[in-house]
Amino acid sequence: MKLSERLQLIADEINKGETMADIGTDHGFLPLYLLETGKCPHVVMADISSGSLKKAEDNCRALHPEREYNLRLGNGIDVLQDGEVDVVVIAGMGGLLIADILEWNLAKSRSIKRYILQPRNHVGRLRHWLADNGFLITKESLVREGKFICEILTVNSGFPQSKEAAPYSAAFDYPDSLLTFRNHLTKEYLERKLEIEEKIYKNISAHSKSVETETISCRERINRLEHLLEKLYDENHGAEASL
């Protein structure tokens, strides 16, 4: 089975021998690949939609009818026992929904060692929730999927909360870690985001009824992106000069 670039990057974040659960599995391609390649000895395919789970089941039967499969219909990680698997993948959902899934039963969420999260939006809000609830982002990756550039977060759980996270700000939307883990898509990603934020700022500024805090927040995001792009430029040219 050949995966899309996005799913392949997620698969690469899973270590050989780990057990995993795919929450919102849809067609089940990722867990099927992990079984087929022998990377994971045990996978759980879960979805809240019976139609989506049926698609996964159909693919299971079509590809390897001789195998036994673990398919579960249910909401988020409620389908799992505490600590049942080593890693949980939640991909292709909104960042706020991912945070809601993890917050629903924090004790259970913290019993899972590791997560690989791929939010479709509100990634800054998700980063803030993770920081505020004892989850540590250990890696951030960018990958292209069609016309989109997706963010993938590798997250460890179980860290004690010594204090609350800093208040939500543009630094959660566009953190320094985007440069720490930069790849060939980082510049394009930042430039795209800057273009979007500038359009938002222009639209907000054109409306006299706009809330002042919205204008300030948008300006902060623009400043943050400009800072990261400038830093990326300096680091790239510094590296070239040292050759």
Keywords:
single chain; 243 residues; alpha/beta; 10 helices; 7 strands; globular
Could you explain how this protein is built, in words?
There is one protein chain. By secondary structure, the protein is of the alpha/beta class. Helix content is 47%, strand content 18%. It has helices at 5-12, 29-36, 50-63, 95-104, 106-111, 123-132, 170-173, 177-180, 186-205, 212-241, and strands at residues 20-23, 43-47, 71-73, 87-93, 114-119, 136-145, 148-156. A seven-stranded mixed beta sheet has the order 3-2-1-4-5-7-6, with helices on both faces. The termini are far apart. The mean pLDDT is 92.
CA-to-CA gap between the ends?
41 Å
Q: Tell me the number of strands.
A: 7
**What is the number of helical segments per DSSP (H or I, 4+ residues)?**
10
Work out the radius of gyration: 20 Å
Structural class: alpha/beta
Q: What is the strand content?
A: 15-25%
Provide a brief overview of the structure:
With 243 residues, the protein is an alpha/beta fold.
Topology:
Blueprint: H1 5-12, E1 20-23, H2 29-36, E2 43-47, H3 50-63, E3 71-73, E4 87-93, H4 95-104, H5 106-111, E5 114-119, H6 123-132, E6 136-145, E7 148-156, H7 170-173, H8 177-180, H9 186-205, H10 212-241
Parallel strand pairs: 1-2, 1-4, 2-3, 4-5
Antiparallel strand pairs: 5-7, 6-7
Helix pairs in contact: 1-2, 4-6, 9-10
